[in-house]
Design goal:
436 residues, alpha+beta, Spore Coat Polysaccharide Biosynthesis Protein SpsA, Chain A, 2 domains, 12 helices, 28% strand
Length: 436
């Protein structure tokens, strides 16, 4: 790493954690003199970052917060501070770092290159930390991104789970999806896959995943964490709470976050070529898909049919994707590999749950032999709301569930659990006709 440098791109929106994040980034690096940090700092009056302003490794683009147009717009600005560094790292502005994060990131990337990966891209949701309980509150483990569900506003959403046996792994694992909170690649990534400022927030990671893949990048999740991320930020200012409809904004003709988000959603649908939103209908310029791979290649690799909203069993089971995919597969064979999407509503009458100390309710769909197809638990705030509705006299409470399966379930099950009595009265019913 003697002559190798790292450009760290940071988009920060009124974040009190920006200063400690940058200071910890430099403090924990093995070679802090080789780090260059580019920040798009979106700030309100009386907010400052004085401790960073005279650091030689830090450059800042200051933006009054009411002029901001969202996360991707800010990332695009911050990326303009890239100045030919060897590596590119993208993070948020609320992190803590492991000692030697720079050497670890470079070593993982070079290890993949030594294995024949021409364009490796490390990306993941870092494990969580709590600045009010640090370092005791840091979560251990390496995380992979998993398909969660199809949603209209951003095509689909992802969840996360711990990488199996991460402690004994020696190499990163292949990834289906891109995480905006941590990405690490060669510096050429900045110019090959430049951030599209026309996206707001939702859809950012979906767009970047497809663009990186079609430009020839192979995504990987680090097998060892290199930083932590603050996820619960209830008191931190948010772009979508600041940029709402007000008389002042109407006079200034500034768009609200809803307007920005709606435009972003439409653009994303065009990017994926959804029905009624052709890809060819947009002038993409440098923000379009790459030419090394196609959208169909990405669908086959990820196991997701984005336009018909179906996924493969391997994707549902969170299996590591294969390095190859069946390029010449027919539509008929591809369809056979896809799971059907189901939507079903269970209707409960008032008075069916009578105890006062339920801690969760299991919702399950089973085969006729009793084996489970899909299950979820209702707990915390969702459980409080459910019990409140079930205590309303003469009311019918619907429980809507969406899931994937390779066959129609035989029965549905509602099974409440009480703190004092354990599993209580199981409610079950045969499945009516499902809409798939």
């Amino acid at each position: 790493m003697t002559d190798e440098t790292i450009f760290v791109q940071v988009a920060s929106y009124r974040d009190p954690q920006l200063v400690p994040t940058v200071l910890d980034c430099l403090r924990r690096a093995r070679r802090p003199e080789k780090i260059r940090i580019g920040i798009c700092w979106q700030f309100a009056p009386k907010e400052d970052i004085f401790p960073l302003m005279h650091l030689p490794q830090v450059r800042v683009i200051p933006v009054p917060y009411l002029q901001s147009r969202g996360a991707c717009w800010a990332r695009s600005l911050a990326s303009q501070l890239y100045d030919g560094q060897t590596y590119y790292m993208q993070i948020d502005s609320h992190h803590r770092f492991v000692d030697g994060w720079d050497e670890q990131s470079i070593a993982m990337l070079k290890g993949l290159e030594a294995d024949g990966i021409k364009k490796p891209l490390l990306t993941s949701y870092p494990p969580a930390f709590d600045p009010n309980n640090d370092p005791a509150g840091r979560v251990s483990g390496s995380v992979q991104l998993d398909f969660k569900e199809f949603v209209d506003s951003s095509m689909f959403s992802v969840g996360s789970s711990e990488i199996k046996e991460w402690k004994v792994r020696t190499k990163p694992i292949r990834a289906r999806f891109f995480a905006a909170g941590y990405a690490f690649a060669r510096g050429s990534f900045v110019h090959e896959v430049p951030y599209d400022p026309n996206y707001y927030f939702q859809g950012e990671e979906m767009n970047m995943a497809l663009r990186a893949f079609t430009h020839g990048y192979d995504m990987f999740h680090p097998h060892q964490p290199v930083l932590w991320h603050q996820y619960i930020r209830a008191d931190a200012p948010k772009h979508w709470t600041d940029h709402v409809k007000t008389p002042e904004q109407e006079v200034a003709r500034k768009e609200t976050w809803e307007q920005l988000n709606d435009k972003s959603s439409v653009r994303l649908k065009h990017f994926f070529g959804c029905e009624g939103h052709p890809y060819e209908g947009i002038e993409w310029g440098k923000f379009g898909r790459g030419t090394e791979r196609s959208l169909r290649d990405y669908e086959l690799f990820a196991g997701v049919d984005f336009r018909r909203k179906r996924i493969t069993g391997a994707c549902l089971r969170k299996e590591e994707p294969s390095a190859t995919w069946p390029v010449g597969i027919s539509d008929e064979e591809w369809t056979k590999q896809l799971m059907d999407s189901y939507e079903h509503t269970i209707e409960l009458m008032d008075g069916v749950l009578t105890l006062t100390d339920y801690d969760f309710v299991l919702v399950a769909y089973d085969r006729d032999d009793g084996s489970n197809i899909y299950s979820q638990t209702i707990k915390d705030d969702a459980l409080v709301e459910l019990l409140k509705r079930l205590n309303t006299p003469n009311a019918i409470t619907p429980i809507l569930t969406r899931f994937f399966s390779d066959q129609l379930p035989y029965r549905w099950v509602i099974w409440p659990h009480s703190k004092s009595k354990g599993w209580t009265g199981r409610i079950a019913g045969r499945m009516p006709k499902l809409l798939s």
